[in-house]
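The aim of this short unit is practical: by the end, you should be able to scan a pair of folded records and say something sensible about each. We start with the first protein, listed as its amino acid sequence and then its structure tokens.
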Amino acid sequence: VGGANLPQGATAARIDYGVAGWGGVCPPQRDKPHRYIFTVHALKDKLTVPPDATAALTGYMINGNSLAKASFSAKYGRAKAK
């Protein structure tokens, strides 16, 4: 969560939660597991994204500068109460 441990030169973009960084996977309580898709991109150029850019704008810029990408999906759910 956040971006305090990113490598030098890396930045954390604002996500759909409205904050910069990784929010993690966490389906609502008592909900069945959700499927999440993770994608990494190899970019042509370093992006210059404004600090207040939306997640949608950042994604648009990433897709427009992508040389290649790889994705995988996983299901995550909350642990059942004992």
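Turning to the second protein, read its sequence before its tokens, just as you did above.
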Amino acid sequence: MNEERKKINLLTLLDKKKKGEKVVYITAYDYPLALLANRAGVDMILVGDSLGMTTLGYETTIPVTMDEMISHAKAVVRAAGKGAFIVGDMPFMSYQPSDETAIRNAGRFIQKAGCDAVKCEGGRRVASRVRAMVDAGFVVMGHLGLTPQNMAQFGGYRVQGKTKESYDALLEDALALEEAGAHFLLLEAMPAESGGMIAGKLRIPVYGIGAGDQVDGQLVIIHDMIGLFEQFKPKFVKRYCEAGQLISLALRAYVDDVKTGAFPKPEHFYEIKPEEAEKIVRS
């Protein structure tokens, strides 16, 4: 069921950084959208805990569980795992309690779901978790800037890295994650200057979601990009289509057709031999 394309792996992504080739990174949470993303040629797919808001209807990412993440990750891997590099997003409290907890849950993403890597939020304070997972053999992506699991500490969804003090803290966190063995870093919601400076000081690939154009690749939330999430639209999002509006039009047309008898019509019926139909009618 996977589209035939060469599998993207860690070495592929590291080579892209050496060559200065931009990496295309997107979220997906289910089989149909992951299949389309893989067909389009995206390099990486994040099964993000953002699915709590875009797919499950939670107000934040905090309620998302490991079981929910694994279920969605399995679907994405079935759709795109032979092509794109699949990253499983570690939800709240799946790695914070201890190194052992982090290793166990990272193992579930790799062993049970078939992901290629895991992502966790935080800097210096989660460096030991990153080191533990890397030492256990996992490929790990760090995540700094606007980290939704820490929204309460930020006082909401706030842009980071807008002052020298904030930038310095982010850079220190980034260097700590690199030192801990992180293979990639994701920067979210910060000025392009801050994102570019941090990316330029690290050896590992640095990707951005709202972090400017001087990073090694771009991530977007697929529901934001295609217009399926209407609650709010981040500044950094470019809408490539309005899928939500198209789906709404289709559903309204379906409602009207059923109510007026315009659907179904004979072309939608299964055929039966006339003599068999007559027997049924007479029975």
